[in-house]
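As a point of orientation, let us examine one representative protein, giving the amino acid sequence and backbone structure tokens.
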Amino acid sequence: MGAAARAALQQRKGDAMHDLFFLPDWPLEITQFPWFAVLVLLAVAAGEAVQRYARLPRPIGWIVAGMLLGPYGLGVFGTEMLGRFSGLLDIAIGIVLFELGQRVDLGWLRRNPWLLGTSVLEAALSFAAVYGVLMLAQPSALLAAVAAAIGMATSPAISLVLTKELRAQGQVTERILLLTTLNCIYAVIVVSMLFAWLNAEYRGGWLTVVSHPLYLVFGSIALAGAFAALAHGALRLLGRRVDAQYITVLALIVIAVAAASLLKLSVVLSMLAFGMMTRHFDRQRRFVSLEFGRLGQIFMVLLFALIAARIDLALVPAGLAAGAALIVARYAGKVLGVIALGRWSGLGTRKSALVGLGLMPMAGLAVMLVHETASAFPEFGPQLLTVIVAAVAILEILGPLLVQFALVRAGESHGRA
């Protein structure tokens, strides 16, 4: 075929394509948002399936869906796509932490100081137990300390979603939520303080060693205070209209999460403190305690699925022994700490043990702290991941079951929502 004939053929093809301009380009280019909807749809279906047919908590289905669909499972959602979801993940975490924070009654701690003592004791004992067990395995003292600090935290999402799903009310429920919030605060502050040690080990320079942890902690609290002041200013204008408060607070949460990320502050500490301050400094009782309803449920499903998708299951065998030891040590510290001061705080031994059991979940917050630490100190990240990932993988599945068991045995469950 001559050059002229080929040119004529190409012209005819071009004309044909021009005539079919209304057809989509091939290959199809799909933006991230339909994939986000697909992930939520599949996770919800898995959650309903495990609840209906296995009588297990819905979050287990959300977690399994995330693990299977993620880059370390079937690979439907790759690492790059998960990275694009990071903004939505931060917002989901922000909503959960704000809602948990604004449910904390600091006046309860003033009226019953033994509760604060219980919280400090169980967190300290779990830190000491995990640190001691990991040191027996002969890792570095720095690795054991950071892992122990992360091990103090209890998953806020699991605690919150199970109390809602079971419509739980009572002393055990409220103590689990309160101690969960305080555990998250302790974990973030201690990990931030340990950044001084990490900086001395990997960066050097006294200014960085001193200023980095102080910036993280006090900067996050200051940011939370600023947004709480904005929220109260808005409440003075809006009054007690629930719909207006809902929209305003949701918008402030999104802005606060973005501000914390932009300023390289702790999203976890900022959002918990934001929720707590918004309630605590509401002297005129303008603020209506908010639950984010169906929208919050979508973000909750997304949070569980995305966190599960980030767990590299290939690391689990290497860290299985250390992870199992961490779980046992953490359980002993939390249960003994709650039982030790249970009677003084107004709760019997049996229910104190159930509270300790309800503090066992360790998932999303732990993964966030691990990734934040690994991002700041890439040299340290692989060691920390090996120790923590196995424990998180195990407690991702066991955590919801343990909380459900604790609430049902305490007699505070009123059926499923």
Notes: The chain has one domain: 34-409.
